[in-house]
Amino acid sequence: MANGAPFERHSELNCEQCLKRCEEKRAPGGRYECLSVVYDYVRSVCDLYSVTGNTWPQCLASMKGYVYF
């Protein structure tokens, strides 16, 4: 995601574990609420974002080895 910074980064997780982390951060009341995930299949890195990437100034950038949820 361009022009956005993750509020949490986890390494050595598989994609399913990454999505579960986001689900755990979906409940309102926490400091940040997970609204999107970028998972790096090459390095097994999970980035959680409190933005969707669909509104300015954030935007989605297609990159090989990454998937966006």
UniProtKB/TrEMBL annotation:
Membrane spanning stretches = none
Q: Which domain of life is it from?
A: Eukaryota
Matches recorded under Gene3D superfamilies? Hepatocyte Growth Factor
Annotated coiled-coil segments of the chain: none
Start and end residues of each Apple domain: 14-69
The entry's protein name is: Apple domain-containing protein
